[in-house]
Amino acid sequence: MPRGHSIKVRFLIAVSTLLMLPAAYAEREINLRVGVTDISKEVYDLHMMVIWVCVAIGIIVFGAFLYALIYFRKSRGVTAAQFSHSTTAEIVWTGLPVIILIGMAIPAAQTLVKMEDTRETELSIKVTGYQWKWQYEYLESGVSFYSSLAETSNTARQLGSGINPESVDNYLLEVDNPLVVPVGTKVRLLLTSNDVLHSWWVPDFAVKKDAIPGFVNEAWFNANITGTFRGQCAELCGKDHGFMPVVVEVLEKQAFENWMAEKVAASTTPTPEPALVAAAD
Fold it and tell me: Which residue in 102, 109, 113, 201 could disulfide with 234, CB within 3.0 to 4.6 Å?
């Protein structure tokens, strides 16, 4: 095979491999998730658009380098051009990146504006970070509870437990009381912290918002499908930072209403007086 033809074949193989990388990363979950909200889909599309723009730029730039190295090398008798500068070239390599950046910035800014738009929400939940758990308060109904690492994971993580973490389902990503929300509902989160910095992060919702002591942050999501979605605290908040997962259960609306009715009933049931309990015994 001629040397020049061999180089072309290798170049095409390298380009083909590069083009297949995003799909391979998606299968291995190295890439961003598409998620289950409209915003997460937009974020994924923006991410992939930027990747393909970078791939295209890389192919053009390095392709030009390789072409110049192969066809304008000294061994072919080519002599270097003698010029100091080119005004046209300077305008092109300055203006073209500006146009590309503006083309990426406009849709990105539009998505960022949507991510911060908490108007017309149907359910408001206050989220408070603690070392090392979350408190969820449903502001309309008054239902409140804490969400901590599930006992199965908490036991397995202890030194000398003798439990293989790989045998525990959703190790370090399971909680005792998940956040429960209805499907197809715009949920507003009011995030704060009771001690140090935390960050509430669920990749499938494209939501990652800091919980700051003395400050209230806002975020929102609207899940399009039911299911269980997991995340973690994404801010280093102390020695047990890795044991502070986030779990959200998205239910059908009727199932959510039933769940909420049970929670409200449980919270309004009076606690028996100690004396009455003793008399009953």
Answer: 201
